[in-house]
Amino acid sequence: MLGSGGKKSQTVRAYTSCNEARKAVKQRRKLEPFKTPAKRYLVSRALGCGGHQGSDTMNIEANKIAGAVLSTLLVVMGLNMTAGIVFAPKKPAVTGFDLPSEEPAHGGGAAAAVAAEDPIAVRLAKADPAKGEKATAACKACHTFEKGGPNKVGPHLFGVYGRSEGSVEGFGYSAAMKGRNDKTWDADGLDHFLKNPKAYVPGTAMAFAGIAKPETRADVVAYLNSLSDSPQPLPKP
Ligand code: HEC
Asked: Which CATH architecture has domain 120-226?
């Protein structure tokens, strides 16, 4: 037995604080399988020994930590409940919210849209055909712009301003575009078409997303108008 050697039992005793060395060693053996300090503490209590010093200190530490964790949880739960009571959400009887009704209901939206984007005539006053020519680089995959230029994926665009829509001889327009040749391309129509071709001419074969910037569109319209033997006067604001 381990405890029979005087020196050894002294050592054991030194750090067990159980009254007898033998008891202490037995105690230790019994407690060995219990891994956590808390379990060892409980078992040592049940066996009638105060447990050794180190274990006690650890138990107090463990208790402190457990206490801290529990009280934190309590505080968090308490806060949660208090907040729930204080900030209880009030459910409205009718969902949604009222819109300010100073302006007449109709026309408000249109006015806002116009405010965000100047009319084409206003933008044309400041338009630059040279800038417009640069912006048509993206069109050149499908269109020619010079006089007598051939049709490509799209019809040639020389003289398109003032030309009937969908009217170039020998070009295979979509049914949507062909159906519009009672109309003439003007500044307003070109501006809308180039903003979003598919929205202005639903079913068009022109696979082009559109030019988002209003100023750039005005530049392009001014440039397209210049592609003519006799450019037309552009609309004035
Ligand atoms: C991917 C090819 C493609 C690109 C890029 C493209 N277009 Fe077109 N465009 C077409 C096609 C195809 C048509 C004929 C549409 C139809 O028949 O519905 C067309 C038609 C047009 C028309 C009407 C012509 C007419 O005779 O009625 C105009 C104006 C026009 N494009 C301008 C432009 C401009 C300006 C750009 C560049 C900002 C551009 N397109 C970019 C393919 C393209």
From this structure: Orthogonal Bundle (1.10)
pLDDT at residue 222 greater than cutoff 90: yes
Q: Which one is predicted more confidently, 19 or 100?
A: 100
Confidence of residue 213 (pLDDT cuts 50, 70, 90): very high
Q: How far is the CA of 152 from the centre of ligand 1 (A)?
A: 10
| CB 187 less than 6 A from any atom of ligand 1 | no
Local confidence band at 20 (pLDDT 50, 70, 90 cut-offs): low
Q: Parse the chain into domains and list their residue ranges.
A: 2-86, 120-226
**CB of 141 shorter than 6 A to ligand 1:** yes
Return the amino acid letter for 92.
Answer: P
The SS3 call for residue 82 is: helix
DSSP 184: B
Residue 138 near ligand 1, beta carbon < 6 Å: yes
Burial of 192 (0-12, 13-18, 19+ CB in 10 A): middle
Phi-psi region of 216 (alpha: psi -120 to 50; beta: other; left: phi over 0): alpha
Which letter does DSSP use for residue 164 in this model? B
Nearest alpha carbon to residue 201 among 217, 166, 177, 222: 177
Residue 159: band (very low, low, confident or very high) from pLDDT cuts 50, 70, 90: very high
Q: Is the pLDDT of residue 52 over 60?
A: no
Q: Does the pLDDT of residue 11 top 60, yes or no?
A: no
Angle (CA) 114-104-92 rounded to 5° is 110
